[in-house]
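Quick one, probably user error.
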């Protein structure tokens, strides 16, 4: 693919375009033959699609031919590889091509694939910055769900249509109360509400909405958003209150993530000692990241985090994760000698003896430990 987009294109745009088309036409057979659970192969085809869109823009392809090709790939996309094709070919299609494609989608898909029709028309509406067209596309097949309601509100706000956006935000809030929703949608609803209030000139109400969201999430991005919108005087008090909110938050691991991102050493070390028993060892990304971050200035805090990770893995007794447990134990052993004051916590020899006794029959772990 790189040879086509980086080298062959300099010799002949038309030949490069044909070669890339042939490559993309192989995608269904390749996807069916390989295990692409990580999405690496799909990513290659997605990148190839973007390159092909640029090649179409450089080659002498008629608008009608471009529309036919985009339509074919979009409607025959059984593996979700070409979901961005309309946006990728926006420049090649031009305004005329987008209108032709819109008409072709409506004529050929209206009674067959309403989901594909909606997706295609939404993509075209975004390319044309047509909010009303986007709303119409969302309404295909009935009332739009929560995700579409938020997408509509976002686009209305981008066009300063605040009153209409607030109506869709209210619908999203009602939808949220009556159905299962992903936690990130709570964050998005609140973010849209504060943006709408800001555009309406209700600055204090917008700040209160942001602060309320921070209390619910103890999220670093929300915290920084609050600071960007309040005065320097209010920032001082809010920063202090935010630390206390983190210490009181129901999810200790999320609170630790926030403190590590935004606060000084003392707050993080104090929190680990007060809350380490409540930390979720399954959230290994946060705990390992923080443990590595504090190793130099707080080896005891790092040991406590590694112990939590180690105990969680060993408690689940899933052998495929033992290699991580071995690494955690090795980190603990390396850090033990750097701790000057154990502050009442179980010291290394006693801890290892108790650990060894609890897990003595987990032979797979000990075999890995011996060879590390």
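Nope, works fine. Designed sequence:
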């Amino acid at each position: 693919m790189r040879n086509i987009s980086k080298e062959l294109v300099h010799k002949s745009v038309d030949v490069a375009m044909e070669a890339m088309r042939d490559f993309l036409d192989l995608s269904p057979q390749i996807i069916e033959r390989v295990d692409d659970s990580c999405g690496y192969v799909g990513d290659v085809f997605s990148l190839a699609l973007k390159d092909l869109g640029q090649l179409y823009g450089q080659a002498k392809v008629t608008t009608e031919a471009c529309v036919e090709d985009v339509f074919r790939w979009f409607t025959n996309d059984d593996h979700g590889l070409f979901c961005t094709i309309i946006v990728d070919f926006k420049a090649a299609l031009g305004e005329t091509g987008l209108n032709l494609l819109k008409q072709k989608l409506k004529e050929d898909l209206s009674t067959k694939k309403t989901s594909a029709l909606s997706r295609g028309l939404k993509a075209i509406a975004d390319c044309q910055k047509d909010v009303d067209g986007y709303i119409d596309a969302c309404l295909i097949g009935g009332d739009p769900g929560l995700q579409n309601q938020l997408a509509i509100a976002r686009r209305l706000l981008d066009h300063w249509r605040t009153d209409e956006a607030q109506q869709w935000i209210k619908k999203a809030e009602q939808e949220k109360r009556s159905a299962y929703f992903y936690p990130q949608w709570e964050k998005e609803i609140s973010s849209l509400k504060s943006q709408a209030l800001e555009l309406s000139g209700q600055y204090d109400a917008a700040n209160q909405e942001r602060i309320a969201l921070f209390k619910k999430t103890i999220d670093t991005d929300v915290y920084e958003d609050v600071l960007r919108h309040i005065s320097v005087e209010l920032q001082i008090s809010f920063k202090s209150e935010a630390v206390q909110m983190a210490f009181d938050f129901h999810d200790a691991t999320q609170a630790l993530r926030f403190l590590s991102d935004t606060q000084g050493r003392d707050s993080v070390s104090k929190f680990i000692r007060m809350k380490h028993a409540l930390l979720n060892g399954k959230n290994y990304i946060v705990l390992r990241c923080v443990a590595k971050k504090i190793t130099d200035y707080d080896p005891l805090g790092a040991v406590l985090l590694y112990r939590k990770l180690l105990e969680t893995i060993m408690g689940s007794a899933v052998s495929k994760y033992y290699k991580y447990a071995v690494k955690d134990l090795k980190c603990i052993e390396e850090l033990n000698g750097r701790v000057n004051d154990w502050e009442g916590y179980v010291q290394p020899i006693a801890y290892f003896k108790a650990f060894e006794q609890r897990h003595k029959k987990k032979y797979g772990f000990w075999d890995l430990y011996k060879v590390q």
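The two ends are 40 Å apart (CA to CA).
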